[in-house]
Amino acid sequence: MSKSRDIADSAATINFIDTVTSNVQTQVNAKAGLSNPTFTGTVAATAFTGDGSALTGVDSLPSQTGNSGKFLTTNGSAASWGQAGGGLQSIQVFTSSGTWTKPAGITKIKVTVVGGGGGGGGCTNGYGAAAGGGGGGAGIAFIDVSSIASDTLVVGAGGSAGVQSSGVAGSFSTFGGTTVYAKGGGGGAGQGGALFGTYGGDGGQGLIGDIIPNGNGGGSGISGTTSTALGGVGGGSAVFGGGGRNGRGSSNAPSNALIYGGGGGGSGRGATGGNGADGVVIVEEYA
Length: 287
Hints:
Distance between the termini: 67 Å
Low-confidence stretches: 1-7, 9-14
Helix content: under 10%
């Protein structure tokens, strides 16, 4: 025999029990508008209205407007939308000095700086040969930029070629002042006609960074006649290589460096050396 009774209008709690009689269920439904009711058990509903922002003890979702494709993340106290997929988002390549500005959503960057390459040497008439310029060093670092909006950078210039003289050294490249730093390559020695070879320019040093490889030194010149004297090849940069071709005798001129931070080639006999290549700063941007 089933027993039931009306639920008082003043009741603040409704005990919802599965498999109750239809008479009890009807009374529960009729009292659904009670102020601040408390339910125990499982409550089933086909729809709710409102955004739940006034609920207590329940974490509501941040606004979904304009956040298509992003994922939900938390810092332990508040939820927010994060960049979908994470990982590498974009790359900026700087071939001249300036300012890096952080794109939206970027939290970390990998920076590669390469110093300028040294110029190749040139030589006068005689049996001499000039040397190649050294390649620029490099600095590579992974940096947290969560609290950084922008930073300055310097791209080192390549050294000019020697004209019957030694080549000019390349300049240093940096990011963030001295956060990442690399020196340029040395200029290749010129030759004034003596019967001995010349020394190539030193490779630039990678000075500051998580990885700091040095550039390759330029090749030495080898003395000879107007047709056989050999200039030194340009040294490759620490990251890209790209040293210039060496000259031979008085008829085959050396070449300028081929890519970022490469050293210029040294001349054979009676010719100008090759120019060193400018350095570069590359910023890989991660979410």
